[in-house]
Design brief:
Blueprint lengths: L2 H8 L5 E4 L2 E4 L19 H42 L1
Antiparallel strand pairs: 1-2
Length: 87
C-alpha cells in the first residue's frame, strides 16, 4: 500500500493526531506503516462527513469550471463568425 493510501485511511480515523503538519497515530506516535488494515483503526464519523462534503465541493467546482470554459469557447466562436461575416 502506498503512503498516500495509508494517510487517506488515517484522515478518517479517531486515533489520528497532527504533528509537524503530518498525520501520525495517537496510539503509536508513528507515521502509518500498516500494509492492508490498521488494527487500531476506529472510524471518525465526523471526519468522514467532512471528507465527503469536501469531495462534493471539489466536484462541483470542477464542473463549473468546465461550463465557463465552454461558454468562453462559444463566445470566441461567435466573435470570429461576426468578424468574418462583415467581410
Amino acid at each position: 500500500m502506498e503512503p498516500e493510501q495509508r494517510f487517506d485511511i488515517c484522515k478518517i480515523c479517531q486515533n489520528k493526531k497532527y504533528y509537524n503538519f503530518e498525520i501520525i497515530c495517537s496510539l503509536t506516535k508513528e507515521k502509518p506503516a500498516f500494509e492492508n488494515n490498521c488494527e487500531n483503526y476506529i472510524e471518525d464519523k465526523e471526519a468522514v462527513r467532512v471528507n465527503n462534503n469536501q469531495y462534493v465541493v471539489e466536484e462541483e467546482e470542477s464542473s463549473s469550471k468546465s461550463v465557463w470554459y465552454i461558454i468562453g469557447i462559444l463566445v470566441l466562436i461567435f466573435k470570429l463568425v461576426r468578424l468574418f461575416a462583415r467581410h
